[in-house]
Model the fold of this input.
Amino acid sequence: MTTIKINQTNEELHKFFMNSDIKRWKEEIEIINVEMIFYKNLLNAHLKEHASWGEINYESLFQGIADVQYYNERFQKGLLDFNNRLSGMAECDDLQCENHFLNDHTNIKKSIESHFSTYKAFKKTLFSYLKIRYNY
Done:
């Protein structure tokens, strides 16, 4: 675990918190990727077993999974890009330059947190369908 030192500069503190966010977001994205593969395989296995769509609209579930995977991939690439650009913050010699990185971080944070929220809502929907199908 990384700790904050008392004599760190503002730039070092900002970078510390941005790196912490990026690390957490990368982990969340990786988990979502694994979960989407699991749910897709689970739904495919159920379809092979029952061979009918019944009262559940599997097509919309598969489309939802594809959408989550698409946006997850976009955020994963965006985070990698931002993380690579973040090293440029060390070159900043004025507050305006540093604010540019902080603003980028804030915008990414809003977008990715919205993505995670949308994903959680989709996951609730997916669980509802699975609950109905498996009578839980």
